[in-house]
Prior knowledge:
This protein is an alpha/beta fold.
Amino acid sequence: MDCAEVLVIGGGIAGLSMAARMAGHARVTVLEGESAPGYHSSGRSVAFAHYGLGENVVRTLTALSMAELAAHGSVHPALHIAGAAQVPLLDALEAVHRQFGCDYVRVGPAEARALMPVLKPEACEAALIDHGSLKLDTDAMLQAHVAGLRAAGGTLVTGARVHTIAREGDVWRVETAAGRVAAPVLVNAAGAWADVIAQMAGVRPIGLQPRRRTVISIPAPEGEDVSRWPFTKTVGEGFYILPEGRGQLLASSMDQTPTDPCDAAAEELDKAIAADRVEQGTTLAIRRISHSWAGLRSFAGDEVPVIGPAVDAPGFVWCAGQGGAGFQTSPALSRIAAAAALGQPFPADCAAAGLDFATFSPARLGA
Length: 367
């Protein structure tokens, strides 16, 4: 049986970023059930860092993460658009950008269409341009964490789907498809499967809700270089669209379909809704979908990440519920999670921003 000081179940952005932080302080082993890290949600994320996602805690984590994210991201403007009925939502989003000192400007429909020429007039009564948003290189981020983990003496085991978990004395023993491992601290960073892992360990679940989101890729208008088009998103229900190189566009209806943990796949109805939403808001005529995929975004009931030790299980630590903001919050959230697992003080910059361990504790959810 292999032994470590900390076992992390889950090789997505949450588990790997946390493990890389801890590896300089403890012997860390990461268990990933698939053949490579980041196979599920992390490998299917569009990963555009902006302030139009999540509530105040998530936005605070984003602000605390932006400087570090710049190493694996390129600055690309985000255009948040509002139809006539959505202007109050845009006002609220402007207040958020002001709160976090973003490099933004409020513009009218003419300026918005100068940046995004395919917008229909009725889709954009007003808009906000964030000049500091980032398009993230998700693969580079994941591989950097793997390299950091290994450089510090940590281990990533792939193909290690968990079969059983048991607490024996002061040690967690985990049986996987790749063998048995043991450690006094077990971190549950299993994404959409986090409640499943908790139940295997005899730990009360947190009521995690995986939600499916679908993304389609469509050809750009013939002869048009769309690479400079902004990431464009409605502030309320609607769609987002962004360039994928010069000749393709990615789009989503921002669907959030509750589902069980699974290897998510794009369904025909969801693809059709995404295409229809784009055609309603733009002059694009979608005759062909180049490819499509779906991923799961997992939420706690209050949509705040769940980080910290379980009340009813010594040595069991939650790192779950990132809700689709896993990449853009990972620098700050991994520091908080590593501190919680290792019994270290709460990060000072995060405390100065008004956060604390109680903000994320599973105890708030009865876990």
